[in-house]
Amino acid sequence: MTKFYSVIDWSRPWLASILPAANQILAQDDWRAALNQAARAQGLQNHCSLSLQFILQEELPEGVAYESHISAAGKVPTRENLHDFFNALVWLSFPLIKRQLNALQAAQIASLGIGKSRGPARDAATIFDENAALLVLENSECGQSILESLRAHHWQEVFVHQRAQFAEVAQVWSFGHALMEKLVQPYKAITAHAWVVWVEADFFSQDHAQQARQLDTQVSAQLQTHSLSTGDYTPLPVLGVPDWWQGQDADFYADASVFRPKRLST
């Protein structure tokens, strides 16, 4: 029988961040049981030290917020769709980051309740959870130059003129599960909220598992000590990441409907 996730092209570079976790699940017939088996094998816990479990959406008690239930019970309501499937794979791939984001979201709900507006801190955490990409940069003059070009929206500079340097001192790791869901059917305008992670040069010589562990530890520590705001992110049109799409010439990056100039402050 065709699975709902059979439409995913796992060869896409933006799925490399969760591919090891996905391979564990795709090899099994029962995807939900496989998720829980993997969670148990990794000893995954929420921020209250409760074992993590992926449950049916119908098991979420009426009137209880999704984030609050994960916090209070360690149970992640997971529907049979791409959005929730990617979310579960991110839990398996970056459990410390997800745990900290859930702690932030649950604390905001406990403090402010659930209303039409999430509030700035919860908004920022939700943006991270749903649409973030980790922009990993070498802590060097070259890495700083790339970040400055990105923040200034100098797209030609960073993706054309600095392309060789980008390959040496930068990586992009997809994190947001809504971002991954959109990229199942990619289109040029998809834009991530990039979260900057500074690393030393030896990071780039490590294997994927070592890199993932470092990012999980380092970013979760950032989130514990930093008050999140929506201004923390840098817009990143993800199909512009070098070698993530075909035809990335100067004309590709000249498309101002996607690679927009920076707005002038008023």
Automatic annotation (TrEMBL):
<dbReference type="InterPro" id="IPR021390">
    <property type="entry name" value="DUF3025"/>
</dbReference>
<protein>
    <submittedName>
        <fullName>DUF3025 domain-containing protein</fullName>
    </submittedName>
</protein>
<dbReference type="Pfam" id="PF11227">
    <property type="entry name" value="DUF3025"/>
</dbReference>
